[in-house]
Design goal:
The chain is α/β, with parallel strands linked by helices. Helix content is 20%, strand content 27%. The structure holds zinc ion (2 copies).
Length: 308
């Protein structure tokens, strides 16, 4: 079997979902990215984009013979950048979370005394939602993670192992999927987590909801050095940024500054402003390509195969 490392955009929009005729091509769902790597399913964030992924997982699961299904439960590693609503609002509608055999390994940041699990629980809590997070049928392993942590997915083993780059124990196996964690402080109020996935020679970084106050963000440049794919927040045009400084989002130019300084192979602009129509995004892409030619616009439904 060929090596597998595929990235699929399920939701690329920032702040609020924007369905409608002006967003049909790039999509109107909020943040969710599906990554399939070496047999593991990794899901970034649970904006409204996660709903279609859940429906597809359910169709595949239900199509199996009952005996086969018993030995092939739905399984995912879920990595959360932060818990603002546009990154969380799809979770109560992610159908696999209601199925008893589903196993979800969920990772996110602890802020102050608030464990990540508490933040998740708030999204499924009466009177906002009829089912309490703790009463869901699925098996959920929720853990706090922080800068320097490395989530290892070893070949053929579903359960992740947590290591830390500051406290190496044994060398990481060459054929493991390695997920590195970086803390950004450039998003109100508590910052966000940025992730790098490395598998064999291929790498990607997901950096959404960050603001390049001083462009380029030198810590992010170091974290993203030479990666194949950088998915970077690019919510604002320069003009929009003038009235939105401090909101925790970047301009296209800030994204290209990081891409150039880090020598990434391809840059995907992400977290599109809900005001931007498909035609606006086409125009922005043309302009941004002048700054960094290998720039692409993240588009809902698009899949990137890193081993092609
Ligand atoms: Zn957001
Ligand atoms: Zn946010």
């Amino acid at each position: 079997m060929n090596d597998e490392f595929k990235i699929k955009f399920r939701g690329v929009r920032g702040s609020i979902p924007v369905p409608g005729k002006n967003t049909l091509r790039y999509g109107g769902n909020t943040t969710c990215i599906e990554v399939r790597v070496d047999g593991h399913l990794i899901i970034f964030d649970s904006g409204t984009g996660i709903i279609s992924l859940g429906q597809e997982m359910m169709s595949t699961f239900m199509a199996m013979d009952e005996n086969v299904r018993a030995n092939n439960p739905m399984n995912a590693v879920m990595l959360f950048t932060h818990t603002h609503l546009d990154h969380l609002i799809g979770l109560p509608f992610f159908t696999p979370i209601f199925i008893g055999s589903t196993k979800l390994y969920m990772f996110g940041a602890k802020y102050d005394d608030n464990d990540f699990k508490n933040a998740l629980s708030m999204s499924m809590h009466s009177p906002l939602f009829p089912v309490e997070f703790d009463n869901l049928h699925s098996m959920r392993d929720v853990k706090n993670i922080k800068e320097g942590d490395v989530i290892l997915l070893k070949k053929g083993i579903k359960e992740p192992e947590i290591q830390n780059i500051f406290r190496p124990t044994v060398p990481f196996p060459d054929d493991a999927v390695k997920i590195y964690v970086h803390q950004s402080y450039a998003h109100p109020c508590d910052g966000t987590l940025v992730y790098k996935i490395e598998y064999k020679s291929k790498t990607m970084v997901f950096a959404t909801d960050i603001e390049g106050y001083k462009s380029p963000d030198s810590r992010l440049v170091k974290f993203s050095k030479d990666v194949d794919i950088l998915i970077h927040d690019a919510q604002y045009t320069n003009e929009q940024y003038n009235s939105s400084q401090g909101f925790g989002h970047s301009t296209m130019e800030m994204a290209t500054d990081v891409a150039k300084a880090a020598n990434v192979k391809k840059l995907y602009l992400f977290h599109h402003d809900p005001r931007h129509t498909d035609d606006n995004l086409d125009a922005i892409l043309l302009e941004t390509k002048k700054l960094f030619s290998e720039t692409y616009m993240a588009m809902e439904g698009e899949e990137i195969d890193l081993f092609i």
